[in-house]
Design a protein that fits this description.
CATH architecture of the largest domain: 3 Solenoid
Distance between the termini: 103 Å
Radius of gyration: 29 Å
Helix content: 10-25%
Strand content: 25-35%
Largest sheet: 16 strands, parallel
Oligomer: single chain
Number of strands: 34
CATH topology of the largest domain: UDP N-Acetylglucosamine Acyltransferase, domain 1
Length: 338
């Protein structure tokens, strides 16, 4: 069986990432398991002892993998071809390389597509996304439509993780059995085993095992959602830690806060964390019940097992076990008749 040696030339490389890696990083990934060396220009390439073929690859063909070159080398043997141009580089048999023969044919296989402009860039990136998705499926992930998802090279999906069509997953970790629903976006996110993200955005944040997020939720700037927690529709969590079992079922803003285990955040609750100059923190204890349409004005601490009545505005610390009602007394006036 023929052996192959790769020389890689980075000079002048486009450093913009494609599906998470630069074009040159994709070449390095494709060369894994095959002897290779980085050189400054083609004059540094020599014929290694025992090599049956030599490839000199530039950054402009990021889809090339060593396995593709080995297949092409076998085809060259069968057809009596000395070498192929591949982008700006080449693949030659050892004999052709030794005598300095230049390739007379250009490789037109899809893996040899050259990065030559924005149009080619889009096609190459789509191919890379598909490759990542197919590899993820081979490793045990469940992806029903590998052409519609966008999973980058820095993402890790555990076996049994589900990524539904039109989801975007960037530089993230998705645990076993977790489900990333259609039209969800994960960026720099961690999603625990069995968690579910439904049509939501999670950026720079973490979701614990068996938690549910969405639909239409937004987690950002270091949000931490605990195991079994529930973040429902139109809930935004910013720079906050929610312990296990916290529920914020719908229409709430939780910012710069710590929320204890088992606490319920009612519909329409707002953590008023900004006084116009600085962001201030709110600390909520365990098993607290926060009624609908409550305003929690930071800085504020609410003790364990407290109960806050609906439509209250809370501006002072609340002791553990206390009942708080802070709203204008209702008045009913007879309708004035003309």
């Amino acid at each position: 069986m023929k052996t192959l040696f790769l020389y890689l030339i980075r000079s002048g490389a486009d450093e913009r990432p494609l599906a998470g890696l630069t074009p040159y990083e994709w070449l390095l990934r494709g060369a894994q398991g095959t002897p290779c060396r980085e050189i400054a220009d083609e004059s540094e390439a020599t014929l290694p002892k025992g090599a049956g073929g030599v490839a000199i690859l530039y950054w402009d063909t990021p889809l090339v993998r060593a396995s593709d070159l080995m297949t092409l080398l076998g085809e060259m043997d069968r057809r009596g071809i000395d070498g192929y141009e591949i982008g700006a580089g080449s693949l030659r048999t050892a004999a052709a390389f030794r005598r300095g023969a230049l390739p007379k044919r250009r490789c037109v296989a899809p893996f040899a597509e050259r990065l030559s402009g924005e149009e080619s860039r889009g096609g190459i990136e789509r191919a890379l996304y598909r490759r990542i998705a197919e590899t993820s499926v081979q490793n045990g992930a469940i992806i029903t439509d590998v052409d519609s998802v966008r999973i980058d090279a820095k993402t890790r999906l555990e076996a049994g993780a589900i990524v539904e069509p039109f989801a975007i997953v960037v530089n993230s970790f998705v645990g076993k059995g977790a489900r990333i629903g259609s039209f969800s976006t994960l960026e720099n996110a961690t999603v625990g085993a069995g968690a579910e993200i439904v049509q939501s955005v999670v950026r720079d944040s973490a979701v614990g095992a068996s938690a549910t997020v969405g639909p239409f939720a937004y987690l950002r700037m270091g949000a931490r959602v605990g195991e079994g927690a529930r973040i429902g529709d139109f809930v935004e969590v910013k720079k906050s830690t929610l312990a296990a079992g916290v529920k914020a079922a719908h229409l709430a803003y939780i910012g710069d806060a710590e929320v204890g285990a088992g606490t319920n955040v009612g519909c329409g609750t707002v953590f008023a964390n900004y006084d116009g100059k600085v962001k201030r923190e709110t600390r909520i204890g365990e098993r607290v019940f926060i009624g609908a349409n409550t305003n929690l004005v930071a800085p504020l601490t609410v003790g364990d097992d407290a109960y806050i009545a609906a439509a209250s505005t809370v501006t002072r610390d609340v002791p553990a076990g206390a009942f708080v009602i802070g709203r204008v007394r209702q008045e009913v006036k007879e309708k004035r008749r003309e």
